[in-house]
Amino acid sequence: MESNMSEQFVEIDNFGLELLENVDMMMEPQHSHEEVNSQEVLILIEKVILEIVTSLSKDEAPVLVLPNRSSWANVSFDNAVGLQMTSGSSVTTVRSNCSSSVTKFGHILKVLSTIYKLVQSNVYATKRDIYYNDTQLFGSQRTVDSIVDDISCMLKVPRRRLHVLATSKGFISGDLCYLEEDSTKVDCHSNSTATPVSSNVGGIRNIVSSAKFVLIVEKDATFQKLLDYDFCTKLCPCIMITGKGVPDVNSRLMVRKLWDTLHIPIFALVDADPYGIEIMCIYKYGSVAMSFEAHSLTVPSVMWLGLLPSDLHRLRVPEDALIPLTQRDQNKLTSLLKRPYLACQPAWQREMEMMQRSKVKAEIQSLASIAPDFLSRVYLPNKLRYGGWI
């Protein structure tokens, strides 16, 4: 049985060996701020407060200077790292004497104070905890989420070093066991229910797996369907993970953790539409907003398994299962084709240009129009068996 499986998936094995040969080149050294200890975090926060006190002592209005996390002009592309924030990036000034930014100034100080107490007492809190600590002040959860990321970027310290965790929305399943930071054993082998992605991926240790590959699944519905089919044991040992659409930071950290530990092929299964492609690019190359943490979030070895625009023609997916591209889709596709990382992905470019010409898109579920179980019984096994990734 084992020999038969090895013969069936020789393409994956060969690709895995190729990755191992290049792993040193793909493993960029982590930024030194990854190793920042608690005492150093406290000193960094104290420096910010000292600057504010100094300004006040001079009868000047204090200001906070934040790197701009929303501009493409602030990021550079490196094939081994993805999108990373440049050192000379443009900044946003948050003034305490300006009506348009004084509220944000107050929010940042409040969250800095909370973080200082958390780090000092070696206690962790979620972003949700921080919001509910003063809902009237913050007004919305989104405000807290943005402020925490701004502080992380300003101090050049990963969020988990600030003792702030985010509630995970992703799920994982398959040939995987590990220990949480508090020594809780997690077994992801169950074929009926998935395991929520950890809220503290950085604390995970003792990862044990004999998986041949990791499959990133864009949508929860597709993930559940593959789970119901028992895909991870029927085909060959593997790990499936979903961020349920646009991935949260924990799902991205988990994919990176699996790559750093296992060095096995990682494939993406997304809709054949501009937004599915963008989601895959976030896992592989990162995003502008989180480019300051690129070294711990991106996995440039991710390969596009499906659904490819060329698959729609090759498999003769029925026309009534195809969806015309909207103007918004076309604009997104044009924008994606201008991204710096597409220059080193000619095969991806060709697929996207094919979508542009055909003016149609398709969801993964469109394969059910060929046969109800076509995805799990035919499409994925053949793709994996014959090396149908790009």
Structure commentary:
It is globular and about 70 Å long. β8 (177-179) and β9 (185-187) form a beta hairpin. It starts with a helix and ends in a 5-residue tail after the last helix. The strands form 6 sheets. Strands 10-7-13-12-14-15 form a 6-stranded mixed β-sheet, sandwiched between helices. The protein has helices at residues 2-8, 10-21, 23-26, 38-57, 102-120, 127-133, 135-138, 141-155, 220-228, 231-234, 249-262, 274-285, 294-297, 309-314, 327-337, 346-358, 374-385, and strands spanning 63-67, 75-78, 82-85, 91-95, 125-126, 164-165, 171-174, 177-179, 185-187, 195-196, 205-208, 214-217, 239-242, 266-269, 303-306, 323-324, 360-361. The protein has 390 residues and is an alpha/beta fold. The chain has 17 helices and 17 strands. Helix content is 44%, strand content 15%. One of its GO terms (biological process) is meiotic DNA double-strand break processing. It catalyses: ATP-dependent breakage, passage and rejoining of double-stranded DNA.
